[in-house]
Design brief:
- The complex is a heterodimer.
- By secondary structure, chain A is an alpha/beta fold.
- Chain A contains 6 helices and 11 strands.
- In chain A, a hairpin with a 2-residue loop joins strand 8 and strand 9.
- The mean pLDDT of chain A is 91.
- Chain B is built from 10 helices and 10 strands.
- In chain B, a hairpin with a 2-residue loop joins strand 2 and strand 3.
- The chains are: A alpha/beta, B alpha+beta.
- Chains A and B meet through helix 2 and helix 5 of A and helix 1 of B.
């Protein structure tokens, strides 16, 4: 039996490009910011791809994003995901976490899946609530802080190692289930060049709010329950202190510095 | 040929994704190894395996033989990004492509089906053996002989400055089959699978730059090569060598653009951070002017290269001219920009605490190999004026 995995992947401004632009309303201008797949989502995607390497599985990417989200999704397809679903609609601009939860849940209602994987949080909004919200709306078992994911297709269950303050908890739940991953799932792979060439022919289905039978009045910027009232740039970092010398000298200098600031 | 240049280019979404993927791979996995590869002068087997596992070495080969069938521009984009981090590492792909070109251009379907899958997977590395001790720029003067014997040929002679010659499993060797034929009909090309009886790596050069890339002197002492491994017809060698260089010189230009960009990256970062006289040195106009010139020259060389690759891929009649122009401009740009990068870093740039001195040493080779800058000018002038009587 094929294990069907949906990975939630959000396009976020490329942290390496450091070119995040805010619109006049204080919200991120997504069209003006070069986007990449959210870093934490790449870890859950990697976990899904590892499962697909080891067994019969199909990995679908699901995003809610502007239409340019197709380009960002292409990288996930190049890494090895099989297909993509992009929910895009002009009415979704300015959505808050609650809108996102409703939209992703509506999209998932129209899909067949055994597992939904969500990243720990996103590097733009840093809300960290979408995974839990989707699980709640869809009444899915919710397994958080996963360091390892072990589905048993025949038994219809999934086992997760959840990080805890003292080590790990082992949780088991029936599938379908929603899992929030951590970076302990393992470093994301680089897309292979064959993967990039193959990504061109993979299917990305685009859905609008009408396709999902969602009322535009209930989602997007106008329905957002929070509003950005002010924005502020972080203070400039103070000058970098460079430690030079042999590795032994350097290690001692760094240890002394950390100790002098009571960091160790 | 001033009317040439009808073909426009624009990077596809796929080429951008591919370039950015290689950039990340090079930045995260190759750049941290570059200084050590230079210092030890050892062939980076780990990088070869990394490139093979990411299908980078499959780029030049047809899809039906395990390759990716990438066009010349795509190959150049990849070489550029690897060279930005480590030129030695970029040579692994450049030379794989270079040495396979005679087979791609003149090989039979049987030869391609037999030899390409292992080259595309990176299991076997290839080397290109044209240059000899007495035949450098004057490549037609080569002396290595291939004498018919039974179902094949016996090769005898010495090849010099053969990149990857000591690590290759397949070497495309140019040798004289008919010493009495006109100068450009004397030569044939052979795919020599090594190790084999009579083949020996005589020595490795000690070099100024690209130190992790082995440059070998190869001895062929009666090496038996089956006729099935002759590439093209007897006497096709010279034609194949020239056609090969038309497509390989842009790869060297791509290395050069990559080195220049890598040096500019370091210099700009340094100018943002280094303080003298109470301010960042990037705030001094003399430093700004250097950086602006470095950026402009690098971008100009890059755009020329992309255009040249596109023209050559489209089968331009003046492909040789495009190849030489792109290598000439890019090689000189790499040398100038890396030299200026050392200048921006001052005394620190002259030490191996920073990568720019390595980049400056590596840049020099792009003015020398696959035709010196003087040979490029000769090719360009011939395209302009016609061959001398």
């Amino acid at each position: 039996m094929t294990l069907r995995i949906v990975v939630l992947t959000k396009p976020v401004p490329d942290p390496a490009a450091a070119a995040e632009r805010l619109g006049p309303d204080g919200r991120l201008d997504r069209a003006a910011s070069p986007a990449v797949i959210n870093g934490n989502d790449e870890y859950t995607l990697e976990a899904a791809l590892k499962l697909a390497d080891a067994q019969d599985a199909e990995v679908t990417l699901l995003s809610m994003a502007p239409a340019t989200g197709v380009e960002t999704m292409r990288k996930g397809l190049a890494m090895g995901a099989h297909r993509g679903v992009l929910v895009t609609d002009p009415a979704l601009a300015g959505s808050d976490g609650w809108s996102t939860v409703q939209v992703l849940a509506a999209a998932l209602r129209g899909m067949e899946y055994d597992l939904v994987l969500a990243g720990f949080d996103t590097s733009d909004g840093v809300g960290g609530v979408v995974g839990a919200g989707v699980a709640t709306l869809l009444k899915l078992p919710y397994l958080s802080s996963a360091a390892k994911i072990e589905p048993d297709v025949d038994a219809g269950t999934v086992r997760v190692r959840r990080i805890s303050p003292t080590g790990f908890d082992v949780l088991e739940a029936p599938m379908p289930a929603l899992i929030v991953g951590t970076q302990l799932l393992g470093e994301p792979r680089y897309p292979s060049l064959k993967g990039i060439m193959a990504a061109r022919s993979k299917e990305v289905v685009t859905k609008s709010l009408a396709d999902l039978e969602l009322d535009a009045a209930g989602v997007g910027g106008d329905a957002a329950r929070t509003k950005v009232t002010d924005t502020e740039k972080p203070p400039a970092r103070s000058a970098t202190q460079v430690v030079r010398g042999t590795p032994d000298e350097g290690a001692k200098a760094i240890a002394d510095l950390l100790a002098s600031r009571r960091l160790i | 040929m001033t009317e040439a240049g009808a073909v426009a280019y624009r990077l596809t979404e796929e080429q951008v994704l591919l370039r950015d993927t290689i950039r990340t791979l090079a930045f995260e996995q190759i750049a941290p190894r570059a200084a050590e590869i230079d210092r030890t002068g050892e062939f980076p087997e780990d990088i070869r395996q990394l490139l093979a596992s990411q299908d980078v070495l499959a780029l030049p080969y047809p899809v039906e033989h395990g390759g990716l069938g990438a066009d010349l521009l795509t190959q150049c984009l990849v070489i550029e990004q690897i060279a930005r981090a480590c030129v030695t590492s970029s040579l692994i792909l450049s030379v794989q492509a270079l040495a396979s070109l005679p087979l791609l251009l003149g090989g039979s379907e049987e030869q391609k089906a037999r030899l390409f899958p292992d080259l595309a997977s990176g299991k076997v590395l290839a080397a290109f053996a044209l240059t000899e001790p007495e035949a450098g720029s004057d490549a037609a003067a080569l002396r290595t002989r291939a004498v018919r014997e039974g179902d094949g040929y016996r090769l005898s002679g010495t090849k010099r400055f053969i990149t990857n010659g000591s690590v290759a499993g397949l070497i495309t060797v140019f040798a004289v089959t008919d010493p009495d034929a006109p100068r450009h009909k004397r030569i044939s090309c052979f795919a020599v699978e090594v190790p084999t009886d009579g083949f020996k790596v005589a020595r490795l050069e000690h070099k100024l730059g690209i130190r992790g890339s082995p440059t070998a002197e190869l001895n062929f002492d009666g090496v038996l090569v089956p006729e099935a491994n002759r590439i093209g017809d007897e006497g096709d060698g010279w034609k194949l060598a020239l056609a090969t260089l038309d497509r390989s010189r842009p790869g060297i230009a791509a290395q050069a653009v990559g080195i220049a960009q890598g040096a500019l990256d370091v210099a700009a970062q340094y100018a943002r951070e280094r303080k003298q006289f109470g301010q960042r040195i990037g705030e001094f106009q003399m430093v700004q002017a250097m950086l602006a010139d470095m950026d402009s020259r690098t971008e100009a060389a890059r755009q020329l290269l992309y255009k040249a690759a596109t023209e050559i891929e489209a089968g331009a009649a003046d492909a040789s001219r495009w190849a030489s122009i792109s290598k000439l401009i890019a090689g000189d740009t790499a040398m100038a920009v890396t030299t200026d990068a050392v200048q921006v870093l001052g005394g620190y740039g002259y030490t191996d605490d920073y990568p720019v001195e390595r980049m400056m040493r590596d840049a020099k080779i792009t003015q020398l190999y696959e035709g010196t800058q003087q040979i490029q000018r000769l090719v360009i002038a011939r395209a302009l004026l016609g061959k001398p009587e």
